[in-house]
Specification:
alpha/beta; TIM Barrel; 11 helices; 43% helix; globular
Length: 261
Amino acid sequence: MTKRIPFIAGNWKMNLDHQQGIALVQKLDWTLKDAAHNYADAEVAVFPGFTSLRSIQTLIDADGLEIKLGAQDISAYDSGAYTGEVSGQALKKLAIDYVLIGHSERRQYHNETDEVVQAKVAAAFRHNLVPVICVGETLEELEAEGAAAVPVRQTLAALAGHDALGEFVIAYEPVWAIGTGQIATPEQAASVAKKIRDAIATEFSEDVANKTRILYGGSVKAANVAGFLRSPEVDGVLVGGASLDAVEFSGIARFQKHLDL
């Protein structure tokens, strides 16, 4: 079995200016260092807004921080007359590691279809960025199709048609659990993650499936994260609001201290 390093990702959404972002990353780094966090045991990444990326990348480079940096979106296009979009080429110049693609808010508010998500994944692969592909069902879809049908379908659609697959991460975020205080149970999250992994194995290979990290997202906090990560099927979490609190987010990153409780 391939060893998958747990991945703790913080999506800041449209919060914090670049100065606030610098302060948050500094405090997060200090807090993790004080707790002797080992990044080999759990990788930590932050996903600020576009206006903060350069400032935080400079901080990470200057201070030699082990925190990874991700962007919240990517254009399907590499350059051209696409006002307001940000290309993978530009992101790569900022030493970005990861990029969120297909978040439910992009699908809902910006009408991003599976075809758009697929094109953005292709752009990430072209520029050697790791796409964190977000999948998940609404409450109506859950009731009509069950918990795994939509995320499996969205996963396979995002990965279809590429000449070669680079590294990618899948983030299962049930839409009904984002920002609502409701959460899937650890058993539900593990079940959906397994079905996603099984689908990847069937469509591509066991090797690809075994290497793929599958995250859970949706009202994750330090108090509940260990329950999700007890399952070998769940390889980390995509955190929203709690990632804006350095102490809370560091507690999530140090989930292993809760596993034996």
